[in-house]
Amino acid sequence: MTSIPDELARSEAVNPMGSFCVSAPAGSGKTELLIQRYLCLLSRVSRPEQVLAITFTRKAAAEMRERVMQALNAAAAGETCSSAHQQVTRAFAEKALVASERGGWSLLRDISRFNIKTIDSFCAGLTRRMPVLSQLGGQAEVLDDTSALYAEAVLELYKLVEEEHPIATDLAALMLHFDNDWDRLQQLLVGMLARREQWRDYVGVHHSPRESEVYLLTTVNGMIRDELAELGILLKPYQFQLLELLQFSASNLTAQIPLVFPGDAANDLSQWYCVRNLLLTGTGQWRKIITKNEGFPPDKGKAQAQKALWKALMGELQKIDGLRTRLAGITSLPVFSADSDSWRLVLQLSRVLPVLAAQLLLVFRKHGVVDHSQIAQSALLALGEDDNPTELALRLDYQIEHILVDEFQDTAITQYELLHKLTRGWGEHNHANSSQPRTLMIVGDGMQSIYGFRGANVGLFIKARREGFNGVTLRHLALQCNFRSDAGIVNWVNNTFQLAFPARDDALRSQVRYSNAIALRPATSADAVDLHGFTGETARTAEIAFICQYIADSLEQESSQLPCLGAVEVICRLLFHSSKISVSHTTHLNSKRCRSRRSSQTC
Amino acid sequence: MAQGLYDISSLEALIEEGFILLTPNQRLARRIKAQWDAQRLAAGAKVWKPLPVHAVEDWLLQQWDVAASKQLVAQVTPLGYAQILEVWRQVITTHSDDNADYHLLRTESIAEIADHARELLLRWQVDTRLSKVQQLFHFERDCGTFMQWLKMFAQRLEAAELCTPTDCLVQLANVTGLVPVSRVALVEFDQIAPLVRAALSAVTLQWLEVVPTHTHGERLLHTFSSKRAELQALASWVVCQHRVSPTTTIGIVLSNGNSDRASLEYLLRREFDCLGENYNSLPVNFSSGVALLHVPLVRDAFAALATGLEEITVSAVVHLLHSRFLISADTQHVVTQSFVKALYSHGRERLSVSTVCDLAGEASMRSAIDFVLHRQLRAMSRMLTRRRKALPSAWVAQFNEILSLWGWSGEDSLDSLEYQQLDLWLRTLDEFSALDAVCRPMDFAQALALLRDCCARQVFQPQTADSPIQVLGPLEAAGLSFDHLWVCGMQATTWPSAAQPNPFIPVAIQTQFAMPHANSERELAFSSGLIDQYARKSGTLHASYCRQLDGIPELPSALITEFKLQVIAEPTAVAMQWISSSREAALVAIEDRQAPPLQREDGNLHAGGSSLLEHQSQCPFRAFATHRLQLSPLPDFYTGLSAAERGALLHAVLAAIWEQLGDSATLLKLTASQQEQAVVAAIDFAIKDLTTRQLGRQGKAFWSLEKERLARLLHEWLAVKRLREPFTVIATESELELQLATLKIRLRADRIDQLGDSSHMVIDYKSGATNIRDWLGERPANPQLPLYALAQQDTVSVLAFAQVRARQCRYTGLGSVVAAAGISTEIALSQKTGSVDQDWKNLKKSWRRILEGLANEFIVGEARVDPHTPSVCTACGLQALCRIDTASINEPEQTE
């Protein structure tokens, strides 16, 4: 087999001495890579459970277990390999079998020894082993949909408004803000409970209103600071020119003349508005002309020179990737004055929410059920705050030595924290045992993040790549080859999605840029992708009718001529669509080869 | 000739020698005894000595009784399981209350885990007094905490001179002075805990393990695409075997406990044709039971008892009307219907029992029928003192009183299964009463919750006639012999199962003592041992698994790789007999979108409100169902005020304030404080007009918020009003009639203003978003105001929505006069494209044509399902009737 463009990255990714962050776009064969690394690590541990692989769905875990088992069985049976990458897998599988034999693991007989799990089931396992530390107590049923319990918690909260509870005033104010429409407020609060891991850290539990206000202010100002700091870095090379322009403009507008270029403090925000006004129009576009409104009168002399300076600077600044959007965005940064309505609302919420969360715990207790979020929270609690991970090893009866995480782009904050806790002390350990390092590999594709509704945050992927975990740094490896689709499709996707993604990665905003894929399969036809748009009120039905007709035509064509069309797959965004299509396609044709399914993924 | 379920030939020699036989569980003991009896009978014996065969622990406890009667062991009382758990629960609660650093979410089920940990330690004879052991425990927070609980538990028992059955075994193992006489043989044991061994050694002359016999039969593997297919194929196969040879014994092992039981039972019933009349003649015995709490008889007992609580859910109330075990079961349809409607209209999913009682009383009055439910609830409230604290046994008396009040367990005679359930219920009540020994007095709610726990733990195993086909759990099947044993669900993920060490004992100790479920190695050995045991005992051992479970791929267990694959055809998704009977049916499609035309009675006109035409316009079927069939959906539950209540309140407030003000001049003259007073007065007036129940559903805080909200809104609205041209309010909430074709339409205008030119402006208050497009087009969504314009052709010059909505107060409307900002006189511009109406006069003409058309449609009985826009369906709620969603799915089948 000829070598492929990203072969180096692929061989590096199975190096058991290193920790990696692999970005792997769709169709890049990352599952095989994960399996290879998993098998490779098995041969380096004393118990198979020490290699922990975390997948995002139960299905993915089952598939990975199955493929690992297949690889081991194939190796045990001595089947022949048909490709080079199979050969690689085989070599690792053989080593793993030797380790299994040596350690008496009976891997071929006992699939439960593969520590390949979803984050939910791993957390559930932890809490089962640590009922007191996790404070969960006995087994509670974990429900996927707990919205009825959230609603019940809100009703319990509402009862407090009639009592002399410390938050009664805040709650009443919130209700009034929602026109005393308790049902609408309930919907909002239910939504907040479903996402409580996202606000818990910001809101915190505080004993006095003042305390929570200070805490919130710190959080908000921190956010502003981060944003302004990024801007400051982008504009650093130009800050003296900019300052001069700012001073000139201020003098003409008889505003206060700035002495220094604005920094990253929240107080500097008003100065930043001036910078924005100097460079961008109100709608956030690059300014083409500058007038006396901005403090540049149409005079000769100094004014003309300043305008020339401005013009030259604009030319430079427009070349900076992402500067415009970031600068435009500063007007959406929160500005709070103590008496503004929105700030009061935030404060009221920040006092009510912790009480609401506590009510939810009572409801959980009453019904003996919890949600996944609670399990994750309990698992974190069980792992403790201190830096002493020995107890975990005792509880689990093994020390986790290696972790692999798939679909990391869909990781939520709690999962990120969990990894942090699981890797406590790894940096020091690796320092002292450089020949037997503990390793971490995260695999993901920021471009495919689809679980925003569950609190997934692509920013965490970027953050992990930059910062690593507890002194374990992750080397970035990028897979680029696409084995799944032919060049026609891959190139179309490259060209199209390039436009839809931002120019730079941005952890703060949870955005990633697009990276091109390289097709390994040649193009089979010139127009691999047809795009059909439907608009107007009847768009949905028109689309369905079109799809059905298209499938019918294609199949008819196929039956009259070879080659054969192969399978037809229809991917729908909504269940509504898929039901209509399956209904209508039986009217148009009678083929079992048509499958329709629902998906929120588009490529 | 098929073999029996247990081959006792290997035991005959031991029986001859006078050995007592001991088995791991009662089931096997009963089985061996039955086999022995059958054998004696077959040999022609008339009388014979009962075979001494017992479950090992039962026998040992008998020995303890003997020792106790001879005062050879300490004088303590053994507790039942419910009592033991109660003690644990108290210990754990006390401990966590005293320790601020942890607070458990679930203390109920943790008691079971803690008790299990203690059992393990005792049975595997771990000496927890050793400092080495203590150290291991205290190294881990969970185990350390458990150690403290354990001490407290022991102290409690000691103080009350109580013990657990396992403590009895410990005493027995250390007994001195007992003269052993028995020789015992242990049959079919996979493992024997060290404590049991020690106890046996102490109380017997000799004990031995019977070495299992080897009769390896055929071992077959079957694979299926889904769980459903697996169970379906199994059911068909069982029926087939049974029909060929009714004496063939078949065992079915369900690997994952109870979760497949219901599906399998259904499929077996279907295959054996025991779903209907033959329900009680299913030739299958299920060993796995169901929780007593979930059998209908007991479930309904709890439904009746729950009426003693302060609050109850709507669904629980409705359940009372459905239960055939209760006297409240619905036989009074008229009053029941009226009651259920009122119950839902109350708007709360959970409401106080006294409110339910009131609603039932009102329904009773409305229909002038003595409503049973009302009578019952009233009797309940007289009978019960909820807050009284009492011991469980005292509550049992009260529970029984309540149940007899509700006529439980029904007038109909119970069937034999239900009698067994009733029997178990009574035993469970005894067990509950026995909690007196360990409980403090509790109130009604606590007692009911505790009883519920007891019933949830109590497993009901129906005792049916012995049957050649048995459905069993994995452990129950161990030791039994079958011609065919079929193990279902042999997935790699369940066989062997993952290790489940007890969280309260350090794993190191569990591994060292080889405790059950301690680690993967132990689980694997255990599972393969079990499979071997099955194989030894069965003529043919079948194993099956499905390749997919909930859409997730599954592998076969590696323990069955040596089984011979036998292909059984995948069953069809739908039972064959159903497919064929469906084919035989001759289908006729009937299109029915036409109701009978309205008949004039005695020359009277038919009357209706403006909603009649509104519905006809939105969807003719909705008008038909609502106005001719008189159907309306049950309302949704809500938390504060419903949208309708909010609307009504706002209307009342607005009517009240214009009663005071009268015209724009008065409004303009008001000072800020006068306006404030007027607003407060109007709001107070409107709220006072609400019913006591409406007021009582919310607390004081709610109403004060509501007043504040209305005041803010009203001031906002009056500010808009102040900008209007001069007007005089000539009517609020005024009624009017309009005849369209043969329909008499009753109209109600929220308000009518007289304008400067003495023409009228008709105003409709809306608290939601408004759009004048709702008046226009061939099918206007909201024709109320156009109807009004027709009724008062000559005087009405303006129609307006008054959108009274926080932060969005404004007028929108159409007319020939600009009476306020937001009123358009540009009739043509406001129309959808293609309309011919250029002015107000023509618009009114079109309205007459369109609305008369709709009236005629209604009169002739046009009732097609045809929602004008999708949003019509969102607000309708009659989908169960018009089946608009299913209709579109059924269409293609009709065309085929």
In short, what is this structure?
By secondary structure, chain A is α/β, with parallel strands linked by helices. Chain A has helices at residues 7-13, 30-42, 58-77, 84-103, 119-129, 147-159, 168-177, 182-194, 196-203, 209-235, 239-252, 269-279, 302-317, 323-329, 341-367, 372-383, 390-396, 413-422, 426-432, 458-467, 487-500, 539-560, 575-588, and strands at 20-23, 51-55, 116-118, 141-143, 369-371, 402-405, 439-444, 475-478, 481-486, 518-521, 568-572, 594-598. Chain B has a seven-stranded parallel beta sheet. In chain B, strands 20, 21, 22, 23, 24, 25 and 26 form a seven-stranded mixed beta sheet that branches.
What does this entry look like structurally?
- The complex is a heterodimer of chains A (603) and B (896).
- Helices cover 52% and strands 9% of the residues of chain A.
- In chain A, helix 6 crosses helix 8 and helix 7 (168-177) packs across helix 15.
- The longest helix of chain A has 27 residues, at 209-235.
- Chain A is globular.
- Chain A has 23 helices and twelve strands.
- By secondary structure, chain A is of the alpha/beta class.
- Chain A has helices at 7-13, 30-42, 58-77, 84-103, 119-129, 147-159, 168-177, 182-194, 196-203, 209-235, 239-252, 269-279, 302-317, 323-329, 341-367, 372-383, 390-396, 413-422, 426-432, 458-467, 487-500, 539-560, 575-588, and strands at residues 20-23, 51-55, 116-118, 141-143, 369-371, 402-405, 439-444, 475-478, 481-486, 518-521, 568-572, 594-598.
- In chain A, strands 3-2-6-7-1-8 form a six-stranded parallel β-sheet, sandwiched between helices. In chain A, strands 4-5 form a two-stranded parallel sheet. A two-stranded parallel ribbon of chain A has the order 9-10.
- By secondary structure, chain B is of the alpha/beta class.
- In chain B, 48% of the residues lie in helices and 14% in strands.
- Chain B has 36 helices and 26 strands.
- Mean pLDDT of chain B is 87; it is low at 889-896.
- Chains A and B meet through helix 3, helix 6, helix 7, helix 8 and helix 15 of A and helix 5, helix 7, helix 21, helix 22 and strand 18 of B.
